[in-house]
Amino acid sequence: MIGITGQIGAGKSFVGQILRDRGFKVLDADAAVHELYRSNADLRKAVAAEFGAEALCADGVNRKFFADLIFKDESARKRLENLVYPALTEYIVLQNPDYVEAALFENVPEVVKLMDEFWVVTAPEQVRLTRLVQQRHLSAEDAQRRIALQRAKDDPAAWRTLLADKPIRFIANDGETPLNI
After folding, report:
1. Sign of torsion, CA 76 86 114 30?
2. Which residues neighbour 148 within 8 Å (Cβ) at sequence distance 6 or greater?
């Protein structure tokens, strides 16, 4: 299994779609988590027990509730991750994809262990900023804030530290040069 990761706006999903188009099984970890929030009864029960019924809604979790809570209480994010990540790990094992696309592998060491290698998609900051504004319709200020939160990952050495002991391949996605995948 190969993990596809990178900074916000670098093009992880774009690389994942190219691989899907080539017939590979690519699991989007973010989409999988949202599916688990909707359909995994044990996870829903655990989230409600930990955070209250208002944390859930018919199609998953109450995103506004969690955004507000996590902004005020960093420990809430950790408690939620402790509920979600074991379910995600089990889901990945059951699905057995060729590739797993995720932004924050380093937060889920059990999933990192499943990967044979990682592909880190990179793009210059200005390219990422433009993508976030044009494709995700973020304000320039919000896009810059999100990019700044990940600035430590601008250095390839940071990725080598985060994903220690795993082979890493860097894929440049500047929007002009053909991708090497």
Report:
1. negative
2. none
| HSE toward the beta carbon, residue 106, CA cutoff 13 A | 14
In whole angstroms, give the CA distance from residue 167 to residue 181: 15
DSSP, res 67? H
Question: What per-residue string of b and e applies to 29-38 under the rule 16 or more CB within 10 Å gives b?
Answer: beebbeebbe
What does the block give as tokens for 55? 């944390």
User: Which residue from 176, 159, 171 is spatially nearest to 13, judged by alpha carbons?
Assistant: 171
pTM of the model: 0.91
Contact 88, 108 (CB under 8 A): yes
Q: Tell me the pairing of strands 56-57 and 26-28.
A: unpaired
Instruction: Determine the Cα–Cα distance for residues 148 and 51; give it in Å rounded to an integer.
Output: 30
- Burial category of 177 from C-beta neighbours within 10 Å (exposed 0-12, middle 13-18, buried 19 and up): exposed
pLDDT digits (tens, 9 = 90+) for 114-149: 999 999 999 999 999 999 999 999 999 999 999 998
Q: What is the distance between the alpha carbons of residues 56 and 120, in angstroms, rounded to a whole number?
A: 33
